[in-house]
Amino acid sequence: MLKPTDGIGRTVIDLGGVWKARWGDAGIADLVQGKGYTGLLAVPAAWNCQVPELHAYMGRVWYSRDFFLPAASRGQRAVLRVEGANRDARVYVNGSEAGRHVGGGRPFELDVTGLCHRSAANTLAICCDMMGEGIYPADRRMSPARRGDGQGVPAVRRGFPFGGLAGTVRLLMVPEERITDFDYHTELQGRRAVLHYSAETCGGWKTVFEVDGRTFEGAEGEVEFDSPRLWHPSAPHLYPVTIRLYARDGELLDEYRDSVGLREIGVDGGALTVNGAPVYLRGTSRHDDVAAVGSGLSQAAFRRDVGLMQMTGINVFRTAGAPVSWELAEICDNLGMMIIVDLPHDGFPQDAASSRVHGADALCRRWKAAAGEIVAAIGRHPSVVMWSLENAFADGGALSMKCLSDVCLHLRDRDPYRPVLLAGGGAEIPQAGCFDMAAVDIAGRPEGELGRVLDEAHAAAGSPVVVMDSLEDESSGEAFAALDAAESRDFVAGVLVGTFADFGAGGHHGGMTVAGGGIFTRERVPKHVAWEFRRRYAGLIENTMRHDSIPYNTRGGS
Question: Are 23 and 61 in contact (CB under 8 A)?
Fold first, then answer.
């Protein structure tokens, strides 16, 4: 899936702003036509953070606004792109259903050309249902929100279940004959690098690929770099690329611009390697939650968060069960922050009860579909260095293990160039045989047992280990004890300590509680432990911020 970008033949129209809204009982016949709306909601942002009566609302909310097609858009297709709609979304244009997407936090596109008026206003309506098929099975089972008023937030361990249009909504005007997708990977050969690229097109006669001041004909091919500037966290170099599609008579039909990072990710011994050099992971987990907008997309918040992480010496973060947007990944590409992406958790059968209620095969299919969507959305970004299976795996028996293995194989088929991490719920690591690293949660373990726990986890996994540990507010003693125990073992590839910032969590009876354990508060005020991390990682910070070409692999700080 291409990112939305302006170019020759392409126009991006941002439909963000204040939309009409309606929640509670209402007639669908009027709502799809843009009638009967009584409220207002900002887009992109979760509805829970905007209206007091929606704070714990878990039902349906309708959004609506008008839009116009540009006067010079004849001969172009109108594509509606929604970056994230929680969680079961139905889209209507001028009263007709344009499509549906199940699963929040991931982009989807709908061609609405045939539903649009060329010389009049068009009415767009989107219904977001938090209790539809996109909700986690366990949440649906426990939630009281099936009551008619939609009130009551389910107990969820992954964070507060924010609702609504959390992602940007855009109208893309694109040529009829156009570039529809682009992908690449890098192969390092000694001091040389080979960029393997491929572009998909709809129509057209000739495709031209341009990078590093050179042009190459063909929708797929290889580009050799004799003295490449590689992407690395300490030197995040990006090469601009341009893809052009021509008609037989030489007319330029479409142009798409992006950037690529030449880098190769691997696992060697007990370490993650970037371009063949080991990089010790010093990270945390980032929940998709900002105080003002909830899970709503905010590029300013993304930029601030990455800057604060680098200030403390963090070089990687895990997405903690939430998908990552291409906007955040692009910021990380440019700043050298690495990302471990948790696959969207849209149906893992944690227990037999969940499987009986929802169907194990259906859950597994939905999880694989979600994995494919997120790989398609952000798989081109060099900052994405690893995929993570599950958020906190707890062995649910043979059924869950089969699903885990199936999804892992599906993921490797979609992206064979990144390692796969299994985030465990303790030292009990299943013999899945499909992952490259295992993340072990050692929260609550006595300090004297940490070494033994890590040794047992490594022996069970047969792979390098990433250590996860929770963090008590304003306390770093246990966390640094975990770091010391981890860094003394060669098979430990890194540590993911606490959470980046406190985040909202749901409860059985409605309302939001703020889960602690963050290095920063939910408002991004640094706690004492943030300065402790900064002092510990001083050498790493200096090296990272210098953006030189020397790969760093130090485990220690100043």
Answer: yes
